[in-house]
Design brief:
- Helix content is 37%, strand content 19%.
- α3 links the parallel β3 and β4.
- The strands form two sheets. A six-stranded parallel beta sheet has the order 1-4-3-2-5-6, with helices on both faces. It has a three-stranded antiparallel beta sheet with strand order 7-8-9.
- The protein has 292 residues and is an alpha/beta fold.
- The protein has two domains: 180 residues, HUPs (Rossmann fold, 3-Layer(aba) Sandwich); 91 residues, 2-Layer Sandwich (Pantoate--beta-alanine Ligase, Chain: A,domain 2).
- It has ten helices and nine strands.
- The two termini are 30 Å apart.
- GO terms for molecular function: ATP binding; pantoate-beta-alanine ligase activity.
- It catalyses: (R)-pantoate + beta-alanine + ATP = (R)-pantothenate + AMP + diphosphate + H(+).
- This is Pantoate--beta-alanine ligase.
- Belongs to the pantothenate synthetase family.
């Protein structure tokens, strides 16, 4: 497995792969890798002959009140895990490489090129992290231009991110096949997340109420219930019955427009939300009436 830090280093290998007719799959990450990320690698290996993973903690998706410096960085463990899972190349760029004009977390003082996808970035997660998807789209677009993959793979757990980025790929005519991989859950239903490491054993048990609430809502949907009030209520009641968590929001949205729905139609819906267990913020979702 090759580890690249510079764009031109990687591009030489890319040229060799392209001449050999390899199909390149790409998985962007912020590191702190776990089995959920490895499920993306597994999915990529089914469709591609070469797999590239990037590890880059992206400053532009953090707000000034979020602690960018405290985000866990486990690059040695990440590289070893990727090697064990048969990844062909890891791209680990510096902040200066990714942001040649420099970067500050104050959006009003930023310089250089940025990418925004309007219409699907302001709601749901965007309510609470208003510049988050601007940062995500910018760094992913840069990485797509550097890595030049044929196919890319993202996890369903960050479901709004997949909707936003698919729109970016479509609207900017990027020649990349976009794949969404189902959420990787632990046996108790908890969605795998880098943030799970912040949970105590007791909090971890408590956190499972999120997936339980989503599944209860899906059971209701599968019985024919389509109205927003009933679907949101059963999920909310399940979560709020546990006094050790704090629900931040629940959304019932259209799968492509992310418009909030009063009734789930033929296109189905995304039921998603965020909650706090102690000081740890967790997100989760379930699809109703459609799949990726």
């Amino acid at each position: 497995m090759q580890v690249f830090h510079e764009v031109e280093e990687y591009r030489k290998t890319w040229m060799q792969w392209r001449k050999a007719g390899e199909v390149i799959g790409f998985i962007p990450t912020m590191g702190c890798l776990h089995d959920g990320h490895m499920s993306l690698v597994k999915a990529a290996k089914q469709k591609c002959t070469k797999i590239v993973v990037s590890v880059f903690v992206n400053p532009s998706q953090f707000s000034p009140d979020e602690d960018y410096d405290a985000y866990p960085r486990t690059i040695d463990n990440d590289v070893e895990l990727l090697k064990q899972n048969g990844v062909d190349a890891v791209f680990v760029p510096s902040v200066n490489t990714m942001y040649p004009s420099g970067i500050t977390m104050d959006v009003n003082k930023q310089e250089g090129a940025f990418v925004e996808v309007l219409g699907v970035s302001h709601q749901m997660e965007g309510q609470f992290r208003p510049h988050f998807f601007r940062g995500v789209c910018t760094v992913v677009c840069k990485l797509f231009n550097i890595v030049r993959p044929d196919k890319t793979f993202f996890g369903q757990k960050d479901i709004q991110q997949t909707v936003v980025l698919r729109r970016m790929v479509r609207d900017l005519f990027l020649p990349i096949e976009f794949n969404v991989v189902p959420i990787y859950r632990q046996e108790d239903g908890l969605a795998m997340s880098s943030r799970n490491r912040y949970l105590s054993d007791e909090q971890r048990k408590t956190a499972c109420v999120f997936s339980q609430a989503l599944n209860k809502a899906k059971e209701l949907f599968d019985k024919g219930v389509r109205d927003r009030t009933s679907i949101i209520k059963i999920a909310t009641d399940t979560i709020e019955a546990n006094k050790n968590v704090r629900l931040e929001y629940l959304s019932l949205a259209h799968p492509t427009t992310l418009d909030e729905l009063e009734t789930v139609g033929e296109d189905g819906a995304i039921l998603s939300g965020a909650m706090y267990v102690g000081t740890t913020r967790l997100i989760d979702n379930i699809t109703l009436g459609f799949s990726f």
